[in-house]
Amino acid sequence: MKYIYNPGKEGMPIFITLHGTGGDETNLLPVAEVLNPDFGAIGIRGNVIENGMNRYFKRKAEGVYDMEDLAIRGQELKKFILELADKYNFSTEQVILLGFSNGSNIAINLLLQDDNPFKYAMLLAPMYPVEIEESKDLSNLEIFLSMGEHDPIVPLSESERVINIFKNQGATVQGLWVNSHEINPQVILAGKNWLKELKLIP
């Protein structure tokens, strides 16, 4: 998988940035920089191509996921991140998954895996229309969600589904409602405050 690594200050957390459909490994690095310039960041490009656009997993139609491919790509991405952790000597407990749209959706898959090694995620404009068949203990997760009240891509009911996926299984969730399918200054400010509240800085 193609990626860009921006090392932060020693001992600081590290963002794993996951772009939306049609993006690439560079898209969310400026967002990570604004959220905290001292944190490291790794932007990873999705290796699925849909109509010339990068994605992290296949879909059969808008809002209809290819579940088999999602499972395979989720495992593949987790393995790749663990390899990067070994290569650059950081712990998964330092990782903050930072996803937008399709990137948020693959991040949700990572967080719901049985052997999930991650504790923190910022999920912007997520959607996960997948039946969760078994309850998991997600009490170790800290989740920041940004969702659009008038999102043309993600219906309100689907945003609420994402909230419930995490809350119903014990995760600590901080939600922010914005207007559309977007990352705006309100999201950045709320994200900064969330990071401060977590006291991730040594």
UniProtKB/TrEMBL annotation:
InterPro entries, sorted: AB_hydrolase_fold, PLipase/COase/thioEstase
Phospholipase/carboxylesterase/thioesterase domain sequence ranges: 75-190
One Pfam family recorded for the sequence: Abhydrolase_2
Gene Ontology MF term list: hydrolase activity
Superkingdom to which the source organism belongs: Bacteria
Protein's name according to its UniProt entry: Carboxylesterase
